[in-house]
Amino acid sequence: MNTARLELVSFKTCPYVQRAAIVLHEKAVPFEITYIDQTKKPDWFLKISPLGKVPLLKVDDTVLFESAAIVEYLDEVYPPQLHPADALRRAHNRAWIEFSSTILTAQIQMLLSQDHASFDAATVRFHELLDRLEAEVGEGPYFNGAKLALVDCAFAPFFLRTTIMEPYLELGVFTQRPRIQAWSKALIARDTVQRAVVPHYAEVLIDSWRARAPLGRELFAGRRS
Ligand SMILES: N[C@@H](CCC(=O)N[C@@H](CS)C(=O)NCC(=O)O)C(=O)O
């Protein structure tokens, strides 16, 4: 039994940290979480974070960074194993984990648009990625079928934030994409996903984008549906 002390360093809304928190909850591994201010990163954090980014996972005195490296470490050390046992399937899942980072980045870039023309152009790219994903998803309930895997833990924070934003943005993310919709619902229903975010996450997330996005006040003025 591994008894290392685990500390996750996070911003309150970081989806990459939430991936690690979901994996830790799925494995029932105790950990501490330290939140820092994204706009005022403390010196101790800048000293130990090679890219100035979260997540960091401190494993006793060793600092890990990059969510993919962190969750693969957790998966190797703490049961149950979430990555598929088959090497080809595992590589395929890793590729789609990378895709989940790309779609998160596309969503963030869309929200950071300076004007409506850039926002509209960014939504086109976002929808293209969603269509690709819809074509890849199987019968469910999870990416590989019946068993939850690391790839699901990577997508869950994206689906959670997208579900919270949809009533404001009304981009039609889930409309005509039944597989993504069912997969998203199955993930969000998991207690381990709900416990990976701060209390009142929906309000915290919307408030943060209202403040951070150039078009934030307008995009998140009020729920349309
Ligand atoms: N590839 C990294 C991405 C992590 C990332 O982009 N984290 C964001 C917060 S969600 C960050 O720390 N950005 C630096 C900043 O906001 O200054 C991972 O998977 O861990």
Quick recap:
The protein has 225 residues and is of the alpha+beta class. The protein has helices at 15-26, 43-48, 67-77, 87-111, 116-136, 150-169, 178-188, 191-194, 201-212, 216-219, and strands spanning 6-10, 32-35, 56-59, 62-65.
The global form is globular
Number of helices: 10
Distance between the termini: 49 Å
Overall pLDDT score: 97
**In percent, how much strand structure appears in the residues?**
5-15%
Name the CATH class of the largest domain.
Mainly Alpha
Present as ligands are:
glutathione
- Count up the domains: 2
The CATH topology assignment of the largest domain is Glutathione S-transferase Yfyf (Class Pi), Chain A, domain 2
Please give the order of strands in the largest beta sheet: 2-1-3-4
What percent of residues adopt helix (DSSP H or I)? 55-70%
Q: Please provide the ordered H/E string of secondary-structure elements.
A: EHEHEEHHHHHHHH
Low-confidence stretches: none
User: Any guess at the CATH architecture of the largest domain?
Assistant: Up-down Bundle
Characterize the biggest β-sheet. 4 strands, mixed
What is the tally of beta strands? 4
Gyration radius, to the nearest Å? 17 Å
What structural category characterises the helix and strand content? Answer: alpha+beta
Catalytic activity: RX + glutathione = an S-substituted glutathione + a halide anion + H(+)
InterPro entries: Glutathione-S-Trfase_C-like, Glutathione-S-Trfase_C_sf, Glutathione_S-Trfase, Glutathione_S-Trfase_N, GST_Omega/HSP26, Omega/Tau-like, Thioredoxin-like_sf
Keywords: Transferase
Protein name: glutathione transferase
